[in-house]
Amino acid sequence: MSAVHPADLSIVSQWADELDGPVLDLGCGPGHWTAFLAGRGGHSRGNGHSGHAPLSSLDVTGVDPVPAFVEHARGTYPGGRYEVGTAEHLSAPDGSLGGVLAWYSLVHHSPDAIDGPLREVARVLRPGGRFLVGFFEWPALERFEHTVVTAWRWPVDELAARLEAAGLTVLGTTTRTDPGSRPHAALIAEHRTVR
Fold this sequence. Notes:
By secondary structure, the chain is α/β, with parallel strands linked by helices. 25% of the residues lie in helices and 35% in strands. It has a single domain, classed as 3-Layer(aba) Sandwich (Rossmann fold). The chain has 5 helices and 11 strands, in the order αβαβββαββαβββαββ. Strands 1, 4, 5, 6, 7, 8, 9, 10 and 11 form a 9-stranded mixed β-sheet that branches. A two-stranded antiparallel ribbon has the order 2-3. β8 and β9 (150-154) form a beta hairpin.
């Protein structure tokens, strides 16, 4: 976590502090965000109190398709819960989660493959549950060679439209560009309440 940009830490922390219910760290990689989230106390929204009442630490599960990452995470953060799984087929029951974090973990999904994972996120979130996705931002949809495998950078509006089509309501957007670095963005969305 010492290498995490302060702006990213702030975004994820603020998002986590508004959650109510179990959380999934989708594409957890080495497990550092899962462990960080597990150490935070969530808050209950709309609890009738002025302000937010702190809850106990968040109930977090890290999921990654790479068994070596899951093994590493279990060894590095032995108190955490980590599973091998994919964004296309999440094991969580329908409407069971208060939050899903996908911090740069969907960047390797091509434009014709990202809708399935977004629908899965919407499926597992309870009404009012929050989704936070971090990604590389660019004026036009574009593929590029990333560290391990090809990745995609998205225009904010285009990825936001994909979230909306999956049944999520975009609540906010942040962007930043650091000198000598790729532009970054994050979207926070909420699962729509069925009426």
